[in-house]
Amino acid sequence: MKKIFTNLTTWVIVAILSGSLLGHFAPEIAVKMQPISKWFVEIIKLFISPIIFLTISLGISGMGSLKKVGRVGGKALLYFEIVTTIALLVGCAVAIIIQPGSGVNTTTIHGGDISKYTTAATSFSWLQFLKENFTIQVLLFSIAFGIFLSKYKGREKIIKPLTTASKYIFKALHYVMLLAPIAAFSGMAYTIGKYGIATMLPLAKLMLTVYITMAIFIFMVFGIILRYYKISIFKFLNYIKEELLIVLGTSSSESALPSLMEKLENMGCSKPVVGLVVPAGYSFNLDGTTIYLSMAVIFLAQVFKVELSWGQIGTIIGVLMVTSKGAAGVTGSGFIVLASTLTVVNVIPLEGLALLLGVDRFMSEARSITNFIGNGVATIFLANNEKEFDREKMKLAFENEVYEYDL
User: Fold this and answer.
1) pLDDT (tens digit, 9 = 90+) per residue, 219-232?
2) For residue 259, is it within any domain?
3) Is residue 107 part of a domain?
4) Domain span at 312
5) What is the distance of C-alpha 188 from the center of its chain?
6) Residue of 401, 65, 372 lying closest to 246 (CA atoms)
7) CATH number of the CATH domain containing 129
């Protein structure tokens, strides 16, 4: 009983429920809670770059073969493209079959200003993506530094202080994570207080369809991928439940990214694989975002009664296969990618994006959680594929009843 009340998971659940109640019954107070959640995410972001740098550089320096680095990176990119393409096809197929946009009365939906997204969409480029995506910049620098360390004869003098720094950074992260319930409370309170449950009702069918589709994708597609190496998706989800609740409460996969990297190592994935796959996946393996984008385009076509030909649907899939890969690099990226896609297809009114602004925050939780799980699954799959996975560590991690973030 004591363990329940001193466990982080319990307090995050209580915080999410409490925040929801505050948002519903006292919205004017709830909306003032937003800065707390934003501050928490900003603090966590401070850990992301040093953890990526230390994990990758130390991992590559101890990997031995640089060919192996290239092989893992190549496999990761191939995996990302295959799985995100499946996500695109699933999203389009479900939207076409269920037709969540059919019968939606646009006059009952409060729109919003989409000018900043449409303007950004016209100027979107891969160069812009690389400039704004600091995670990719750190990833590339860390790989280069790791290669340097692997060739440097006096590397032990550098590796030792870096290893010590890594130990203390993760220790500091554990203390910061104890604030997660407060962040989850403020994030959920703000979301409900700002947008209200009533906002979801006109677009409830779309939201329900998106959540069901992502749940199916998690348990079927991710489940099958893990099952190939005889790993249970249910046990993995139970193992990262604290992180999933934090992502749910803050609507940000960044809030638990450093913790995910540590947990993947603890469950048997090698440091080099974790260091390469997770940061790259954060930018290129956005399964949840991909599903949402494909469903949103089909949804808007149905709302405006635009009959899409199979050729146009193919164009949508082709465009999203490219543009969705940059969805983590730009502020408001989801809407920018949608605006870019609608501009290319040029048969769906661009102003339709305004219909989605009110419920986007509610669907961001589903996107973030699916993206988060997807990167964990990708890392486990590739670690097994490279024979860089310790199954004994996995068994201990799954069976261990000592909670990492006990209060």
Assistant:
1) 999 999 999 999 99
2) yes
3) yes
4) 2-399
5) 18
6) 372
7) 1.10.3860.10
277 in Cβ contact with 54 (< 8 Å): no
**Cβ atoms within 10 A of the Cβ of 18, count?**
15
CA-closest candidate to residue 328, choices 137, 112, 94: 137
The C-alpha atoms of residue 367 and residue 343 are separated, in whole angstroms, by 23
Give the chain's domain count. 1
Residue 256 lies in a domain: yes
In a domain, 407, yes or no: no
pLDDT at 10 over 90: no
Whats the size of the chain, residue-wise? Answer: 407
pLDDT tens-place string over residues 315-365:
888 878 876 765 554 445 667 677 777 777 777 887 777 777 767 777 888
Q: Identify residue 226 by its one-letter amino acid code.
A: L
Angstrom distance (rounded) from CA 20 to CA 184: 10
CA distances for 90 relative to 83, 215, 218, 314, angstroms = 10, 12, 12, 13
Here the tokens at position 212 are 């069901």
Q: Chain-centre distance of CA 355, in angstroms?
A: 23
Question: Model pTM?
Answer: 0.81
Looking at residue 402, the DSSP 8-state letter turns out to be S
